[in-house]
Amino acid sequence: MSDERTEQPRADPAEIEQHLAILNDPKQPPFRRALSRTWLVEHELLCNWPRPVSRPARVPSPPLSQGNPRLGVVAGLPRDWDPPELDGFGPVPAFPLDVLPPPLADFCRQHARSLSCPVDYLAVPLLAIAGGAIGRSIALRIKDSWIESPCLYAAVIGDPGVAKTPALKTVSRPLWLLAQEYKVAHEQETEEIMARKRKAKEVQRKSGSYSKDLDAEPPKLRRVVTVNATCEALASILAENPRGLTMVHDELAAWLNGMNQYKGGSGDDRQFWLQVWSGASLSVDRKSHENRIPIVVRNPFIAVCGMMTPDMLNLLPAEDARQDGFLDRILFSFPQKVPVRWRWDAIDPAHERRWESTYRKLGARPTLDDPRDGDQPSYVRFEDEPLRLFARWYDAHNEEAESLHFSLRLVGPWAKMRAYCARFALILDQLHWAASDATTPALPPPDVGMKALLGAFALVDYFKSHYRKALSTLSPSNEDNLDARAILEWAIGRGKPTFTARDARGNFRARFAECPEAFTLALTWLADRNAIRKTINYRPGPGRKPSDSFEINPKLSGGDAQHTQNSDVES
User: Fold this and answer.
1) Does residue 263 sit in the same domain as residue 284?
2) Which residues share a beta bridge with 305?
3) DSSP label at 547?
4) Which residue stretches of 450-557 are H helix?
5) Same domain assignment for residues 227 and 279
6) Of 94, 65, 110, nearest to 345 (Cα)?
7) CATH number assigned to the domain comprising residue 52
């Protein structure tokens, strides 16, 4: 049978080289890399997204005292570096600000510089809060049997005292301003109703006439934000606010610790949050309900964002022992530290006003009133070309997780990334509309385009790498060495390509006081995994013993890629 396929025109070799260079250059913006990747796939020059590769068996190295060859210097010249063999470690990518509308990217960048914090501290909560503002006003119908809302569960991880709280306060300011406006308006309206009711009672007492003001009830308070409430209370709030809520936690560990706190740890709070993430209907029973009628919430919506410290990650493994997929639904952002320095940079008020106006426009899109189901969202779809690209990404993403060498610990989170990719695309599409000069929402809203989808791909790649880093901290493998990881993170954080054993031992004096041998084992562990190697002994001066000096693999310190978390703050 003859082959009836139409032959693709041969691509220009120079253009191929250009796209390959962009794809393999971490310094390029995520959009450009995604476009080059798409171009190569279209021309059948790249069959799929990169997949995990198997690693050769690791041969243990002898201790440092025996002259470890992997730590040495050959003929006075250092050998080429092998790739580091550390899961979830190294310079994770910075939040791809290119996916946001330029005014919002500038908003995050300016405040990050002023606070001396990673841009992730602002951009990740902004993404979740934007999804909360959209709520159930709009949903993405990927196909007839698959619908996604803009609900995100996002956790930003950082050490104490690194400006997490000021960053979250800055991003959530429009949310709290709107909540305060609703509260003031509710109080005023309630006072007016109660005044009319008092007047009607006085008239009735004097003349016996009836007025409908006698039966007036205070209005329900419109809610957009919550911090700490029980699942029963949240169900009541959602029943009165079907559009949805945003939960903002300065310490997200309080959210985790608060689950089942009133039921001795045997409640169903986790199941509640699993259902909220999926938008599955809720039915909550309590004896205090009037006539014991349950609270029923169709399609609940609560976006969650907050901050936590690395130590609080230790709370998660025990909580995830049931393997119910709760941990898989959390989007971890674990950015690297940036140097804390005094900044004179002024904040442009126009960027703050633009973020506030964007948030309000997202929250002003009306829901649709259905006589049978009540408030319902407007549904959008992918445009034709983005839908075909999403389908190709979907297959490649699943093939990655089905690889024989893929970590079983990542199968669950990777499965949720399918839904998150669509949710990212919907949020980015609405953000670009709300940040534009459009004054009123289009009804029906337009379908999701290519720009939003490519931005969603970049966000999926971002959160994948950060999840690996978080997972390496909260659930280390049997071969892991937390002492070694602590030393390496300290060494990278110094911003220098080398460090001495004397400096490292001095910094971790208390940690290794009872077991000095653990320090040497940690350095050997790092050398075995191509993270460090020994250089010529450092001699501090006459009268002092020389100290071993170590070089950090530039692929971990950012020396090769120069694509670190500091790029947007330090520039």
Assistant:
1) yes
2) 154, 248
3) B
4) 450-474, 482-493, 501-507, 517-528, 554-557
5) yes
6) 110
7) 1.10.10.10
Structure token digits, residue 55:
């690693």
| Encoded amino acid at 553, one letter | N
Q: pLDDT, tens digit, for every residue of 356-399?
A: 999 999 999 988 888 777 788 999 999 999 999 999 999 999 99
Q: Are 222 and 181 in contact (CB under 8 A)?
A: no
Single out the residue of 140, 243, 214, 178 nearest to residue 452, CA to CA.
140
Token couple for 221? 């308070």
- Domain presence at residue 386: no
* 90 to 363, 488, 555: CA distances (angstroms): 38, 9, 7
Identity (one letter) of the amino acid at 420?
A: Y
Distance CA 569, CA 117 (A): 7
- The alpha carbon dihedral of 261, 267, 270, 275 has a sign of negative
Q: Which domain holds residue 80?
A: 48-87+478-570
State how far the Cα of 420 lies from the Cα of 400, in Å rounded to an integer.
16
Please indicate, yes or no, whether residues 498 and 374 belong to a single structural domain of this protein. Answer: no
Same domain, residue pair 153 and 133 = yes
Q: Per residue in 257-308, pLDDT tens? A: 777 555 555 567 888 999 999 999 888 876 566 667 788 888 999 999 999 9
Interatomic CA distance for residues 189 and 193, integer angstroms: 6
- Enter the pTM of the model: 0.74
DSSP-based three-state secondary structure for 248: strand
Entry field: residues in the chain:
571
Considering the domain architecture, whether residues 292 and 269 belong to the same structural domain is answered as yes
Among 474, 509, 537, which residue terminates a domain? 474
Residue 170 lies in a domain: yes
Cβ atoms of residues 85 and 55 within 8 Å: yes
Residues 156 and 280 in one domain: yes
